[in-house]
Amino acid sequence: MSTRHIQKSFDDDIQTVHDKILFMAKMVSNELEGCINAFEARDEMGSVESAAADELINASERIIDELIIKAIVIHQPMASDIREFVAALRISKDLERIGDYAKNIANHSSTLDQLDPTGEEQRIIDMGHAVNTMLREVIDAYASKDISLAETIRQQDYDIDELYTKIFSDLLTISTYNGEFAPACTHLSFIARSLERIGDHVTDIAEEIIYLATGEFPQDDRQKADDSAYVKV
User: Fold this and answer.
1) Fewer C-beta neighbours within 10 Å, C or N terminus of the chain?
2) Which domains does the chain have, with CATH numbers?
3) How far apart are CA 78 and CA 165, in angstroms?
């Protein structure tokens, strides 16, 4: 087989992995959107249906892993060529974890449908939409290898962390002084924490995109605003 045909086969495998990542990412975003919408509408059945999508996401990660391993074994690429596969492996793992957190949100939402609202729900819903917007934007950045967009997304993580810290503090206050809301506040805290962690994984994907395009990870540590562990009432 000629060098040209070998290179084309390698390029085709890279494109296949790229397309699979995009497909998986869109599934994850749709799952997250469904979970947030079900939480907003207090739709228990919608939460259950959204959580069910996680099995397909897990299967997609396994397929991508197998494709990458097979391509590396067949082509034995040089270090400079393997970057696409390394980034794809990490991104698929981040996407799988985002799917897990979306499923957690759906599970907690199902329970919240049976409890009285606390007044903090809308802020968490807004946080959810903001995080899903970040996810959709990072999908676009991956599709086009847009370093500028990836860096913008990376910096947005601070705002998500800061919002989570405020929400966590307010939920703690409500549950402390209004005991009847304590169960709902606990579930809402888990949802907010899941959204904060999704923001972290989206940011990790943004950094993988920068690595993919430049061969280097950002040298500066991104600023964190989550100090919820130190919040006192």
Assistant:
1) N
2) 3-230 (1.20.58.220)
3) 44
Task: List the one residue out of 184, 45, 66 whose CA is nearest residue 121.
Answer: 184
Express each pLDDT in 180-202 by its tens digit: 999 999 999 999 999 999 999 99
Segment 139-160 shows an average pLDDT of: 95
Containing H/E element for 83?
A: helix 83-112
CA distance 123 to 170: 11
3-class DSSP assignment, residue 120: coil
- The SS3 of residue 219 is coil
pLDDT, average across residues 62-85: 86
CA distance 145 to 125: 30
The owner of tokens 């924490």 is 193
Note the pTM of the prediction, 2 decimals.
0.89
Give the length of the chain. Answer: 233
Mean of the pLDDT values across residues 40-63? Answer: 88
CA distance 108 to 2: 56
Tens of pLDDT, residues 90-134: 999 999 999 999 999 999 999 998 999 999 999 999 999 999 999
Q: Which residue has the tokens 């060098």?
A: 3
